[in-house]
């Protein structure tokens, strides 16, 4: 890693520990994450009630909101997921689109895109269009989007021979199949 990139990490920054997201039905999400995506449920935390201003102060939500339950999962070789089910005191907004502020997707690296698509199709996953071959700096990558049962967007992505930018790059993006590089 170049010195500028190391300095930009900040004090002791190692990387992302987990991705947290909220679902409308934790049992449905559990089945999808475990049975469809192959995640491993690691542990569960009991809910938290908003009896004071803790929820607003620490989480930025209505102070009377209730966290029903939180579950932690490990996905693949290092992605940790923190999945919440809330009972929001002031209601909940719909799932944002990628183009909305706060819009997002969770990209999952697979060694073989076609094999992964076949496996997920067998489990009822509907894909958004067909696989896309990237161009320019991402040449060598293929990807496809799909939605979870609650509407969250996921992506399968694969670039087993690397991406074009890597040939001349001083710093490369982290690669889930080659975590030590």
In short:
The chain has 181 residues and is an alpha/beta fold. The protein has two domains: 1-90, Roll (2,3-Dihydroxybiphenyl 1,2-Dioxygenase, domain 1), CATH 3.10.180.10; 103-181, Signal recognition particle alu RNA binding heterodimer, srp9/1 (2-Layer Sandwich), CATH 3.30.720.110. The protein is 18% helix and 31% strand.
Walk me through what this model shows:
- With 181 residues, the protein is α/β, with parallel strands linked by helices.
- The chain folds into 2 domains: 90 residues, 2,3-Dihydroxybiphenyl 1,2-Dioxygenase, domain 1 (Roll); 79 residues, 2-Layer Sandwich (Signal recognition particle alu RNA binding heterodimer, srp9/1).
- It is 18% helix and 31% strand.
- It is built from 4 helices and 8 strands.
- It has a 4-stranded mixed beta sheet, with helices on one face. Strands 5-8-7-6 form a 4-stranded mixed beta sheet, with helices on one face.
- The termini are close together.
Overall mean pLDDT stands at 91
Q: Structural class given helices, strands, pairing?
A: alpha/beta
Q: Give me the strand/helix succession.
A: HEHEHEEEHEEE
Largest sheet: 4 strands, mixed
The tally of helices reads 4
List keywords for this structure.
alpha/beta; four-stranded mixed beta sheet; 181 residues; Signal recognition particle alu RNA binding heterodimer, srp9/1; 2 domains; single chain; globular; 2,3-Dihydroxybiphenyl 1,2-Dioxygenase, domain 1
């Amino acid at each position: 890693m170049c010195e500028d990139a190391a300095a930009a990490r900040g004090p002791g920054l190692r990387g992302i520990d987990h991705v947290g997201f909220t679902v409308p039905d934790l049992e449905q999400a559990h089945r999808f994450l475990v049975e469809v995506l192959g995640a491993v449920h690691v542990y569960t935390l009991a809910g938290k009630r908003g009896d004071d201003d803790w929820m607003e102060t620490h989480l930025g939500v209505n102070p009377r909101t209730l966290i029903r339950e939180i579950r932690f999962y490990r996905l693949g070789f290092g992605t940790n997921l923190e999945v919440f089910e809330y009972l929001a005191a002031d209601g909940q907004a719909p799932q944002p689109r990628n183009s909305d502020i706060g819009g997002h997707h969770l990209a999952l690296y697979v060694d073989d895109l076609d094999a992964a698509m076949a496996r997920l199709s067998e489990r009822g996953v509907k894909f958004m269009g067909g696989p896309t071959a990237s161009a320019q700096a991402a040449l060598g990558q293929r990807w496809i989007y799909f939605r979870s049962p609650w509407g969250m967007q996921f992506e399968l992505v694969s670039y087993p021979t690397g991406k074009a930018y890597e040939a001349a790059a001083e710093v490369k993006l982290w690669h889930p199949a080659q975590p030590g590089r």
